[in-house]
Amino acid sequence: MSIIISIGSGKGGTGKSTVASNLACLLARSGRRVCLADLDLGGADIHIQFGLFEPPRTLTDFVNRSVDDLSEVVVTLDAIHGLQLLVGTGDTLQSANMNFQQKQRLLRALTGLDCDILLIDTGAGANYHVLDFFMAADIQICIACPETTAIMDFYRFLQLATIRKALSGFLSGSEVSNVLRDRSFQTLAEVFALAEALQPGAKQAAQQAMEFFNPLLITNRVGPNARLNQMKLRTLVSRYLGVFLPDLGEVPEDPAITQAQRSYLPVCEYAPQAASAQALKTIARRLGKVVDLYLAKRTPSLQEKTA
Ligand SMILES: Nc1ncnc2c1ncn2[C@@H]1O[C@H](COP(=O)(O)OP(=O)(O)OP(=O)(O)O)[C@@H](O)[C@H]1O
Ligand SMILES: [Mg+2]
Question: Keyword Nucleus on this protein (predicted)?
């Protein structure tokens, strides 16, 4: 069973795909079996970053049932340490309007892929597809850029993700779920209050769903005059969303990233000594440790197994 890591941010162009392809590559280089899934519906472009202009298959083939088994869509990149790539779907109506059943089928198939780590790149914005793919993971990574507009988009994205997570505490089809699903909320407190009013004890269920939601933060495009006020952001997120935001690291603004993209390679392969590549290497090492901790928690001890 693989561990699923998603990458999201809310705002477009913050570097989700750049970070995703580099982390996937670095984790694969460290010997893990990694699959990178491009779930940016409509804006899928990760395959281009690897110079794969004519992928044999894409997620569209799975969504429209041309293939039944998701593993048939996977392309293995031998030159990138055997990284497996799940090429995203183009802007087809079928994928953009993916219905609940199609999405559930895709999510089920993703969890069944044969790899150690499944890394999911989500699209820009905070629509339900983005939020659902983001929240389906075991570990979430958020990318924030230092400019003010990016921080506000980031906060809003995290707020919506948090509310969606809280709502997931209720069984679909239950009365609370049915009423909450059709409402829009500005704050988590509103979700908790309405849930409790509908069904005493529901607030606790929503809070429990939130217990393991601790998205990891990566700050991208950091420069001498562009630093993220992490303290401020953390206080905001913890006070208003009740979410702790551990820091995974910073990636500097670096022209080597654009140069690498022109050569259709992740910067960690193209220029391993570049400042951004070094920063991404540190982040990948930290992420590897988080994955190991998660796995150690998830795997029942031998004692538990034999009890
Ligand atoms: N640290 C960086 N230094 C310099 N350029 C960067 C850096 N990170 C990303 N970029 C550039 O920013 C642009 C957007 O990056 P990327 O496509 O990874 O963002 P994205 O969040 O995936 O965008 P979208 O929301 O459209 O999917 C790219 O041209 C990329 O080369
Ligand atoms: Mg992208």
Answer: no
| Cα gap 46→141, rounded to integer Å | 17
At 219-232, the pLDDT tens digits run 999 998 777 777 88
Q: What pairs with residue 34 in β-bridges? A: 117
The CATH superfamily of 3-288 is P-loop containing nucleotide triphosphate hydrolases (3.40.50.300)
| H or E element that contains 120 | strand 117-122
Mean of pLDDT over the chain: 87
Closest ligand 1 atom number to CA of residue 9: 21
Question: Where is average pLDDT lowest: 63-67, 129-133, 184-188?
Answer: 184-188
Task: Give the atom of ligand 1 at the shortest distance from the alpha carbon of 124.
Answer: 25
* Helices marked H in the chain: 16-29, 46-49, 59-63, 93-96, 100-111, 128-135, 148-167, 175-181, 188-198, 202-210, 230-241, 255-262, 267-270, 275-298, 302-306
pLDDT category at 128 given cuts 50, 70, 90 is confident
The sign of the torsion formed by the CA atoms of 166, 169, 173, 177 equals negative
Measured in Å, residue 41 CA sits from the centre of ligand 2 at: 10
Q: Do 276 and 267 contact (CB within 8 A), yes or no? A: yes
SS3 assignment, position 218: strand
Residue 213, amino acid: F
Q: Whose CA is closest to 29, among 292, 305, 288, 290?
A: 288
In the chain, what are the domain boundaries?
3-288
Nearest residue CA, atom 31 of ligand 1? Answer: 258
CA of 59 to the centre of ligand 1 (A): 22
- Closest-approaching ligand to the CA atom of 46: 2
